[in-house]
């Protein structure tokens, strides 16, 4: 079983905000891997189950709000007895990356992201894969206002292909692992 988590906030008021790009990628992935499936309420979130080849896949959108995402992930990891370093991928927004850039990592720090910090707290370590989706730096805008805001038209234009690339990178992670996904999908500097 592989667990793929998109980070975001629940509720219509947060749809299409910068902080919800993880949800946006997961929605696209679910349409591809499990067309027509209806999400079930489990693990403090909305889940869709599918498979890719022989691998079972659980896609999870926590309903705990971004800063408490670890609660939902911790429940799912414990229930399925998953090894986060092998079985978990978290899709998250990143203000340190230009909008439209994606970057896969096998592990790492939280980069100031409270949701990632909460996941590490609930799992006891940082040793799990993450797929970061660039949303640009907030500049002079307060961080909270920026991540809870909607994309500017030019950002939206840059974001759309990145969301599809993120789906491809996630499928690659499922089929071939984090190293291959990094080699194929990480932007070169």
How is the secondary structure organized here?
Blueprint: E1 2-6, H1 21-33, E2 40-42, E3 45-52, E4 55-62, H2 69-80, H3 84-87, E5 88-94, E6 102-105, H4 114-123, E7 129-134, H5 143-147, H6 153-176, H7 178-185
Parallel strand pairs: 1-4, 1-5, 5-7
Antiparallel strand pairs: 2-3, 3-4, 6-7
Shape: globular
- Percent strand: 15-25%
Helix content: 40-55%
Structural class: alpha/beta
| Count of distinct strands | 7
Record the strand order, biggest sheet.
Answer: 2-3-4-1-5-7-6
Spell out the helices and strands N to C. Answer: EHEEEHHEEHEHHH
CATH domain topology: Rossmann fold
Mean pLDDT: 91
CATH superfamily, by name, is Peptidyl-tRNA hydrolase
Low-confidence stretches: none
Q: Helical element count?
A: 7
| Distance linking N and C termini | 33 Å
> What does the main sheet amount to?
7 strands, mixed
- The top level CATH class name: Alpha Beta
The gyration radius over C-alpha positions equals: 15 Å
Number of domains as seen in the coordinates: 1
Based on the coordinates given, report the CATH architecture: 3-Layer(aba) Sandwich
What does this structure look like?
It is a single chain. The protein is α/β, with parallel strands linked by helices and 189 residues long. It has a single domain, classed as Peptidyl-tRNA hydrolase (Rossmann fold), CATH 3.40.50. It is built from seven helices and seven strands, in the order E-H-E-E-E-H-H-E-E-H-E-H-H-H. The chain has a seven-stranded mixed beta sheet, with helices on both faces. Strand 3 (45-52) and strand 4 (55-62) form a beta hairpin. The radius of gyration is 15 Å and the shape is globular.
């Amino acid at each position: 079983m592989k667990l793929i988590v998109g980070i975001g906030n629940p509720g219509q008021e947060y749809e299409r905000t910068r902080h919800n790009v993880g949800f946006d990628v997961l929605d696209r992935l679910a349409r591809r891997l499990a067309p027509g499936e209806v999400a079930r309420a489990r693990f403090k979130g909305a889940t869709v189950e599918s498979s890719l080849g022989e691998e079972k896949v659980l896609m999870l959108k926590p309903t705990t709000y971004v800063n408490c995402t670890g609660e939902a992930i911790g429940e799912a990891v414990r229930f399925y007895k998953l090894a986060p370093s092998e079985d978990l991928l978290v899709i998250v927004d990143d203000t340190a990356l230009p909008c439209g850039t994606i970057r896969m990592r096998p592990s790492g720090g939280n980069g100031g992201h409270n949701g990632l910090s909460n996941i590490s707290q609930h799992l006891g370590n940082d040793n799990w894969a993450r797929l970061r989706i660039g949303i640009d730096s907030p500049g002079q805008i307060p961080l909270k206002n920026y991540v809870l805001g909607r994309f500017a038209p030019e950002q939206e234009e840059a974001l759309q292909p990145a969301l599809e690339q993120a789906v491809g990178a996630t499928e690659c992670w499922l089929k071939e692992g984090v190293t291959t996904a990094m080699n194929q999908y990480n932007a070169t500097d």
